[in-house]
Amino acid sequence: MPQAPINDTVTIHQLIDDPYPIYRRFRQETPVVHVKAVGRTMLTKAAHTRAVKDNPGLFSSDDPGTPQTLAFRTRTMMRKDGEEHMCERMAMAPALSPKNLKQIWVPGYEVLTEKYLDALPRGEVVDLFSLLAGPISGRKVADFCGLTQVSDDDMQRWCQTLIDAAGNFGWFQDLFDKADKVNDEVDAAVAQSIVRLQGADDQSALATMINAENPIPLSQIQANLKLAISGGVNESRDSMLTTIFGLLTNPDQLEEVKRTNGWGGAFEEAVRWVAPIQVSSRRVTEDTEIGGIDIPKDEVVMTVQASSNHDEELFDEPEKFNAFRRPNPHQSFGSGPHHCFGTHLARMTVGKTMLPLIFERFPNMQLVDPDTVKWTGFGFRGPLSMPVRLQ
Amino acid sequence: MTKIAFVTAGGSKTEVPAQDGDSLMQVALEHGIEEITAECGGAMMCSTCHVYIDDAWFAKVGAAPEEELDLLGFASCEVRDNSRLSCQVKVSSELDGMVVHLPESQV
Predict the structure, then answer these.
(1) Is A333–B39 a contact, with Cβ atoms under 8 angstroms apart?
(2) Which one, of A152, A136, A234, A216, lies nearest residue A205 by Cα?
(3) Which family does it belong to (chain A) (predicted)?
(4) For an interface test with B, which of A92, A96, A339, A352 has the most B Cβ atoms less than 10 Å from its Cβ?
(5) Chain B within 8 Å of A336 (Cβ-Cβ)?
(6) pLDDT at A383 > cutoff 90
(7) Please, are residues A360 and A105 in contact by the beta-carbon 8 Å criterion?
């Protein structure tokens, strides 16, 4: 069978600026394609990305070439398979049980939302990115982790720095140096919290992990919290802003969402439309084929869920925001054993709590100018600002 | 071959052939039953393949074990006594003709 065609024209900057037209072309012409600029074979069709994620035996998460290991100073559970992965994931899972979600995290987030909305200035242009979505997402994750003493700003900076280093395929030393410093800060905060949480009746991720009958090693506890930070802050922020943007630029949909209480559907559509985490990687454990293309053992394939979410075979007019798209089989939370750990928390907090509350509080909220909202990012993607007028 | 009937909340029924040993979730995905989202693909992470086993068949399938019941706490529709995650129910010839009811939504 043929090898994957090689694309040497697309640049990393084009992918950062606007990958969607590129992915559309790939889906039509070369759905399995080796992209030189990222040094990976990209999978751009929904059926392929889903099949890869659902078959962890053939497509391993253990990628020895990932910059994430250096960025987090350890191999995290995201890069492990089977029992090893499950053991570390399950150590944190009780913190996000349905009971804790309903009794602790969602009610807590309702209180936070009211507080952050109260603090927004009226009658002027407000950037929801820096004054609402970023800080409240930092706060949510800090509280969930058990790092209650950490500021919103530090949480956001930690998330960004860890992400930048984990996706540092250019292997720039300065990004690892910055991450190193953040690792020190996180580890210090964890040590501080442990003193408070040891033996305490507390449902945070850290308390759950340290107070377990057979705790996992401290290095993995720290790694799990760094994953929660890097996978929870920016992604909550971006999904929130993207939903708000989608609804404000489609006022008819907004009215219908209000009338039908369709906030959950609007949130799902936003994460389909612009997936906060756009790509993932898997290492192939045996020679195989995908879509009629030979994929040799040890090749690392990149599943482009951002592209799968716009696959014309599954979605009509995928480039349009449609809060009433049903069904909406997007892959933004991934699938298989590494299905996003924070999925339920995100759906309940951003989707079902923040959205109705902000539109209830500011029914006449207006985007200053949709054209000034700039979107950016290849691995992670979202808007850089969201200036609105609040009345 | 074993046959399974999926019935939507609106009442429309689709009967499909099912391979013994496959999970109900796999059967649904193979036959394009859109009401089964099955986001995690059977890894017991997501609770988006929730179904209601028809009363006449429930005794054969049995109730959800504890771990599954915990996860059902994430289901978006009401969890009832006959609720199961379809990824955890294995097809066998014993279940030939079984009727499975689909909830209104999965997320």
Answers:
(1) yes
(2) A216
(3) Belongs to the cytochrome P450 family.
(4) A339
(5) yes
(6) yes
(7) no
Is the model's pLDDT at A1 over the cut of 90? no
Task: Supply the DSSP symbol for A98.
Answer: H
ipTM greater than cut 0.95 = no
Number of domain units in chain B: 1
Task: Give the residue carrying structure tokens 């985490």.
Answer: A277
Cβ contact B6:B102 at 8 Å: yes
Q: Identify whether the C-beta of residue A46 lies closer than 8 Å to the C-beta of residue A315.
A: no
Residue A300, pLDDT score: 95
User: What does the pLDDT look like over B14-44, one tens digit per residue?
Assistant: 999 999 999 999 999 999 999 999 999 999 9
B27 is in which domain, residue-wise?
2-101
Is B106 inside a domain boundary? Answer: no
- CATH number of the domain where residue B91 is located: 3.10.20.30
Report the percentage of chain A scoring pLDDT > 70: 100
Structure confidence at residue A283 as a pLDDT band (50, 70, 90): very high
Evaluate whether A67 touches A171 at the Cβ level (below 8 Å).
yes
Q: Is A331 helix (H, G, I), strand (E, B) or coil?
A: coil
Mean pLDDT over A8-35 rounds to: 97
| Contact in structure between B93 and B23 (CB atoms under 8 Å) | no
Residue A169 pLDDT greater than 90, yes or no: no
What number is the average pLDDT over the span A69-96? 96
Is A100 an 8 Å CB contact of chain B? no
* Exposure letters A342-360 (e unless 16+ CB within 10 A, then b): bbbbbbbbbbbbbbbbbbe
In degrees, rounded to 5, the angle at the alpha carbon of residue A124 between the alpha carbons of residues A118 and A128 is: 60
Q: Which residue of B has its CA nearest to A264?
A: B107
Which tokens hold the place of A273? 């439309």
Cβ distance of B41 and A343 shorter than 8 Å: no
Among A97, A98, A337, select the one facing B43 at the smallest CB separation.
Answer: A337
Buried b (16+ CB within 10 A) or exposed e, A179-218: beebbeebbebbeebbeebeeeebbbbbbbbbeeeeebee
Domain for residue B78, yes or no?
yes
Which domains are present in chain A? 6-363+372-386 (1.10.630.10)
| pLDDT band with cut points at 50, 70 and 90 for residue A391 | confident
**pLDDT above 90: residue A188:** yes
pLDDT exceeds cutoff 90 at A55 = yes
Report yes or no: A181 at the B interface, CB cutoff 8 Å.
no
Which residue out of A239, A343, A348 would a mutagenesis test of the B interface target, given it has the greatest number of B Cβ atoms within 10 Å? A343
pLDDT tens digits, one per residue of A192-228:
999 999 999 999 999 999 999 999 999 999 999 999 9
Give the rounded distance of the alpha carbon of A241 from its chain centre. 13
- Tell whether B71 is covered by a domain: yes
A-chain residues near B71 (CB < 8 A): 98
Sequence-distant (≥ 6) Cβ neighbours of residue A181 within 8 angstroms:
A161
pTM of the model: 0.96
